[in-house]
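Entry 14. Ran structure prediction on the chain below.
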Amino acid sequence: MKRRVINQVFLLTVLVATPLVTVAQETEADYVSDNDGGRTTGAIWTEVGITKILPYNLSIGLDAGFRTDDWFNESSRFDIGLGLSWKPGKHWKFGIGYTFVNKYYLSETERKSVTEIEYKYENLSPDPTTFLGAPWYKDNDGTKYTFEGKNDAQKDYVRITDSYWRPKHRLSIDASYTNKFWKLLRVTLRERYQLTLIPSKNVTRTRYRTKTVTKYRDPKYPGGLPLSDYETYTSYESYTNYWQKENTIYSQKYQDDDDDNTYEEQAKQDVTTAYLADHENEGLNTITEQEKNKSDKTLHVLRSRLTFEIDKKGWLWTPYTYIESFNNMGDSWHFDKLRISAGVEYSLGKQHKVNIGYVFNHENDDDGDENIHAISIGYKFKF
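Output, structure tokens:
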């Protein structure tokens, strides 16, 4: 009897070792990157299941689930699924199922900052002779120019994709092995292949651009400045700043009249009409709304779950804990998700069971980049 128990433990260890060792090696790096950009939230996960026992050790089940985000403040997902299972013996169980999932995605924000520098030259043709030899002189294919200043533009972009619901179609095939040790501890290993089809989805994205412009004009020319100093010489006779507040565009000029690099500030002016006329009615701040297509996806995931339950004859309470890994088979077995749970199930007779537990869900996949602390509540009816 003792040898039989040892053999069973050894077999279970071999079955578990491969998927769980792989997870331990891959998740450490993933947790570092997740901490850089992920978020932490609380949730409520609820599930209701009905199972009908059929002949030939078959059973069919219907399950429905609903989840919230930010505890009770926001709906995040609902699903409904149908499954068929077969238990050929005491230890093994096989199943196949389909689940429809509707997932809520939070708004996405992207930021970008761009600096643009535009150099301005004045065409001196047809008589550039008075400028020959000046440090700002430029010859371009026979045409004579002089440098008159530059424009510095700072553009800050914020792109916000609105929150949206997106459906998923999920097919699964699984096999599980269960064994009981010391008439008390029930251990189950389940391997599930999960195929998820995600149709394309059009979402609304809004781009906000904030632009400030500084125009530098009339470079000073101290006599004898060598041409080689052109790139480093940045003293100007004047410069003007342009910015926008609400629907009004303002400008303010700074003039160096004393030739000592001390600029005198002039009064702020409303230049909205003139600026829009010169820039084809494009303001410094713009808001653009457009449709963005989220392309369709197909995901292949292997889910490995190891469950421990205290199952003693005569007890109505069944404490449990499990650990489950999600590995993306279509992305070099990338570790997508880790789920750890602990709770208790209570039997209300032979047909009714309720359970409550805690779930820690770390994910970095299509669903998001976050850590979820959830309270799980469930009800099962079997007949």
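Residues 110-159+208-290 form one domain. Will compare against last week's run tomorrow.
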